[in-house]
TrEMBL record:
Transmembrane segments: none annotated. This is Type III pantothenate kinase. Homodimer. A monovalent cation. Ammonium or potassium. Pfam families: Pan_kinase.
Amino acid sequence: MSGTFLIDIGNSALKWAAISTPQNTGVMVYSDPIELAEQVRDFYQKQRPELIYACTVADARVAETLNAVCRRTRVEWLGSQRIFRGRLTLENRYEDYSKLGADRWYAAIGAVAKHPGTGLLVIQMGTALTADSIHCLGESRYEYLGGRIAPGPTMMYTMLMGGAARLKSIAPGTLSRFPLNTNDAVTTGIFDCIEGFMRGGLASLGEDASVKLVVTGGAARFFEFEIRERFPRAVFDDNLVITGLAARVASEAEKEH
Ligand SMILES: Nc1ncnc2c1ncn2[C@@H]1O[C@H](COP(=O)(O)OP(=O)(O)O)[C@@H](O)[C@H]1O
Ligand SMILES: CC(C)(COP(=O)(O)O)[C@@H](O)C(=O)NCCC(=O)O
């Protein structure tokens, strides 16, 4: 499978890895498809991909950019599934399974593959903030129960800066019990939102102490210290979506044999 790559396109960044080394991810941060096209061209020239398995939740133009730059490469777009059957089984309870963001679905598969045998709350801190609940039914059988979506931390900052006249230029501040300046007030407020959001996800799983809290996404490391302090059981994991995509590809290959 040399020449085969996995790609996860989010709203702020494209993450990629060779299928043989899914733990080594490359990242292309972008703000528009043109900026991304240059980075994808560079990836294409250096890696010469023959086959790409990709998932996307970004604007359709971003996928078109990848297809256009890699037009000599077969690109297979993978969406969410009603059920994943591989070394483990994960049933999707979303009302319409196809509407569940593919990054959430593959992160769920990746999280279960890496942290088997227990219930999970998967927190993704990217452009958006998501918390997805997974129940362990036993014997490698899991159920994706549903999840929450809120603005991600960067979006929270930019929304405040865009919408409040006196908050036009906020810099990151420090968390404080009684913030005494605007930067600290905003940083503390945003972290409170993240903490409450995470607690909401944990509460939905009945405060079960055996539930593992898995945190991922580009903004996760920025809040790692505070999250570890408030949630000592939190595990940080960098490439859940890519791991989930690798599991999907492996499951399809096993079906063919
Ligand atoms: N140091 C940081 N502090 C806060 N946010 C950050 C930091 N580094 C990256 N981010 C944010 O992480 C997000 C990108 O993470 P990622 O998980 O790749 O998102 P997506 O999957 O939505 O593309 C962006 O919103 C970016 O602003
Ligand atoms: C929730 C999301 C915006 C997260 O995107 P991201 O922050 O990873 O760029 C994305 O998964 C999405 O567009 N989902 C579709 C709607 C849904 O999952 O119900």
